[in-house]
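Per reviewer request, we include the raw input and output of the structure prediction for the construct analysed in the revised manuscript.
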Amino acid sequence: MAAERHPLFDDLDVRALSRRPGAKWSRVEPDVLPAWIAEMDFPPAPAVRAALARCVDDDLGYPSWDGRSVQNPLREAFAERMRERHGWVLDAAHVREFTDINQGLQAVLHVATRPGDGVVVHTPAYPPFLETIASMGRRPHPVPYTPDGDTWTFDADRLDRELRERPARVLLLVNPHNPTGRALRREELQALAGLALRHGLLVVADEIHSDLVHAPHRHLPFASLSAEVAARTVTLTSATKAFNVPGLRCAVAHVGAAGVREALAHPTHLYGEPNTFGVAATLAAWRDGDAWLAELRTVLARNAALVGEELPPGVRHRMPQATFLAWLDCRELDLDTDPQTFFLKKARVLLNDGRTFGVEGEGFVRLNFGTSEGILRDILHRIRNALT
């Protein structure tokens, strides 16, 4: 039986995509299929496109909100979304805006840590986060994800022992995790919460992929575990991943840690503000985009299964529990170079080099399956043929 087609997501044309000026398609040669940067190929939700058109037609002047005397509407919208989707009741007054997740992380580290302070982070890790830790002079404290059957796990007891010997200041928690696709269970989050309380860690929780968790898995906001946990947590998120509008540069942070919240309040303009387009798109996505999101999640679950079915022997793969990213273990292949270079040269497919995710990424590549079924089949066919 043929798989169900989804016209909004499967009617993509490679020729049209190749004319896009954005990074994903413009940085490859014409015969290369890009499956690298974490950006999907799908057009934005109709509600988002309509909201952006209204901005152009109605008013591109200064917005009515300024983040101080008149609060940005994203704050209440975020609080409402967390309450409705996750049962997490939060104070919208503790929410502030950033242009993106990376800026939010750097701002928090700037006000809450000093050079030399330890930052606990699961590895492999999102490359810009590793770059941030290094460039700001903070000390990375890696917590490796290791294979556990058909998924990935980490050793909380080992981390507890290490923190007694080498104290850290921050736990940078990426959940759902990029690149492995892990969506942590309640008991795993509770173990990390216990460590944060015991060792006095500020938790920065990047939950940008939370809308892209695949059934039967679910997302649990870290700060929702308890009031005590929320009081030492900064939650960073954005609509840009799930609704595929990364260029609009808009993110929010629930700053539960009072000291961090106060430090970020002054000076008022140092950390910037999102623009009118980013706010309008985010509000439309969160308020009117869930039907589109539900169909997207169906497409991504289908594509994730297709990756598992069509990968060639020798490439190991654990089904991601979230995201549109597959973390491919190529260490069993007898390649004469790193796998990213091999597949670019032999398959004409551009993947992310696992080494940029830290030492645990040696021999891995990350594949982006956020595209149409036809393009994904072509990508997987090229990868398979390159190994025959």
